[in-house]
Amino acid sequence: MVSASESSKFFALFSEKAAKFDETVSSKNVDDCRALILECQTLVSAHSAVLPARDLQVYKERIEEFKRMLDNIKQPKKKFGFSKATKQANESQVRNEKVDEAANGGLVDHSSNIQAPVTKTAAFSLDNCDDQQLQLNDVHGEVELRNLNRCSVKISGSPATLYMSEVHDCQIVCDPVASSVLIVGFRGSSLQVACQQLRIHKAQNAVFRLHIVSRSIIEDCEDVSFGDLPSDYPATDGAWEAAGILKTKNNYKLVDDFNWLNVQQPSPNWKLLE
User: Is 4-103 in CATH node 1.10.3470?
Assistant: First the structure.
């Protein structure tokens, strides 16, 4: 079973490629788009053994979406195709998967259960707190919040990553995060943060006010809302610079739901704030 941290790392890698593709397809550069699609496919194939089946399906769906976008900007009667070597690699991968399944008596764990990250060396953490106003100041590394109920939390400084597990009925305000935010279990709560990537598992009745570089990803979520950061978001210019996040582009409206693969219809599990 893949860990949440491993899943988040791959998500960051794929999101970087996807962001480059979004920029390239806007410029209608067919050759560069084709190269990026091949890079994405190679990346997914290389990590297929450690990705949950559902994640793997979604990433492949994204690649198919990239192909359709490429087809829309190409000249008529010009078809896109991967090289023979790539096709042979894919066929070999399928054969290996079948062999692995046969070796396990036909029983393969395709679950996408996500474990809360085990961060033994988290520089800053809060754990098992109820009905408190909490503050972490001058952070400069990993931040981890676990098992918080009815708390108000303010995180200031230069967090590198933010992990949250089983945070309920809480209000979280965090200075810009240099890398990723990963959440497992978030009910009746709100989060304000700027970050590079965001992945959310098992959130319900939650509000996310974001400034985000890539697309947010949700899974097993219900009734979650996304909006821009409020005007009173307290981060200083120095905190934004330390995280390496520009204020000029915010993708808070871009959300991928791993439980909703129908690209023709919006997911019922999330909405944008009015």
Answer: no
Q: Are 153 and 193 in contact (CB under 8 A)?
A: no
pLDDT at residue number 27: 84
Kindly report the CATH class assigned to 124-272: mainly beta
> Domain residue spans in the chain?
4-103, 124-272
Start-to-end CA span in the chain (Å): 38
Residue predicted with more confidence, 2 or 51:
51
Question: Residue 34 contacts by C-beta under 8 Å, 6 or more apart in sequence?
Answer: 70, 80
The tokens describing 252, both together, are 């808070």
pLDDT in tens, 22-54: 888 888 888 888 898 998 888 888 888 777 776
Q: How far apart are CA 169 and CA 149, in angstroms?
A: 6
Q: Where are the beta strands (DSSP E) in 93-251?
A: 124-130, 133-139, 142-149, 152-157, 161-168, 171-174, 180-187, 190-195, 197-212, 216-219, 222-228
251 strand-pairing partners: none
Written as six digits, the tokens of 91 are 């066929």
pTM > 0.85: yes or no: no
Q: Residue 105 has which token pair?
A: 């008596």
CA separation for the pair 114, 7 (Å, rounded)? 9
